[in-house]
């Protein structure tokens, strides 16, 4: 995912630096060329050999180190870097950079970088909320630096506060968002529904389906990484939603219909990937549930058809739906394309191994008025990018 990309990590004197060792490993596994700049104080917490072993690059520590090939090293790395992340960022280094002080290898290199710079503060919560530190952070924001807010948790001195460095996975997502993909969807607003709605029968039971939300989440993450402003309407799911999206949580089909109706007007593309329950109980009142020996019959009514509604009100929006079938996949999906007034239907069969609910892979056929495109078995994220490519071309 990050092959050909250069990432510069800046680390300062904080016990949280151990997380950056794992971050460096994660970045190299994704193909990135990782360089690490260390402040003198950070050497008290981790040895440079750790980073050099993980990245296969010599750490940048001493501005006047002569053990490099002849080059102005901080300028050389600054030119190569696609993104800079300083994590953990101490109050001292934040103050230096905010006020233009470059007196060590890390601050000197950062000053020479023209790429995106991301700062992740980590310190005692009282220090973090010091007005001087907050003023310096606001200066950095004004100068275009992105700030990763610290999280609440136990700090090094056993205090509980919001000065903790986020986990490595969170930091990695900031870097991936910045450099992994071309921002070819910049300026586009995309709405995606995902997950399984639940229709309550009573306080204990409900009607639902096996949707995990993975396909919808893959679409949301792919669109976000390509620069789109994503609104994700999420019903019940088995996985965590992607970062950096506008999240709307719903429970029932009625909730989802209302959320779509209230928000789709400003969208350029609407993708209905959620598995909405087709029926909902007429009432959950105990007196309306008919019981017979060995059986229970519950009066049901159809839920509102979300895809049909947005198709009838599409105007100049691009509309995409999903069709999951057990038989006559293409025939039923073509009918759905026409009856719902959609621009594309993503069809798959529950009978094919590797496709359907709960898997990390999918086998999809893209159906438009111009014909069908059958995709081979692939990850849902790869399929999501092909779906977005197709929608972009419509």
Give a description of the structure.
The chain is α/β, with parallel strands linked by helices and 394 residues long. The chain has 2 domains: 6-179, 3-Layer(aba) Sandwich (Rossmann fold); 189-393, Rossmann fold, CATH 3.40.50.10300. It contains 13 helices and 23 strands. It has helices at 18-29, 48-55, 73-80, 91-98, 105-112, 125-128, 131-142, 168-179, 214-225, 253-263, 306-312, 329-339, 380-393, and strands at residues 6-11, 33-38, 83-89, 116-121, 146-147, 151-154, 160-164, 189-194, 199-200, 206-207, 229-234, 246-249, 269-272, 279-281, 290-292, 295-297, 300-302, 318-325, 344-349, 361-362, 365-368, 371-374, 378-379. It has an 8-stranded mixed beta sheet, sandwiched between helices. The chain starts with 5 loop residues before the first strand and ends with a helix. The model has no long low-confidence stretch (mean pLDDT 90).
Keywords:
single chain; 394 residues; alpha/beta; Rossmann fold; 2 domains; eight-stranded mixed β-sheet; five-stranded parallel β-sheet; 13 helices; 23 strands; 25% strand; elongated
Précis, in short:
This protein is α/β, with parallel strands linked by helices and 394 residues long.
CATH architecture of the largest domain: 3-Layer(aba) Sandwich
- Total beta strand runs: 23
Task: Give the helix/strand class.
Answer: alpha/beta
Largest sheet: 8 strands, mixed
Task: Please outline the helices and strands.
Layout lengths: L5 E6 L6 H12 L3 E6 L9 H8 L17 H8 L2 E7 L1 H8 L6 H8 L3 E6 L3 H4 L2 H12 L3 E2 L3 E4 L5 E5 L3 H12 L9 E6 L4 E2 L5 E2 L6 H12 L3 E6 L11 E4 L3 H11 L5 E4 L6 E3 L8 E3 L2 E3 L2 E3 L3 H7 L5 E8 L3 H11 L4 E6 L11 E2 L2 E4 L2 E4 L3 E2 H14 L1
Helix pairs in contact: 1-2, 1-8, 3-5, 4-7, 9-13
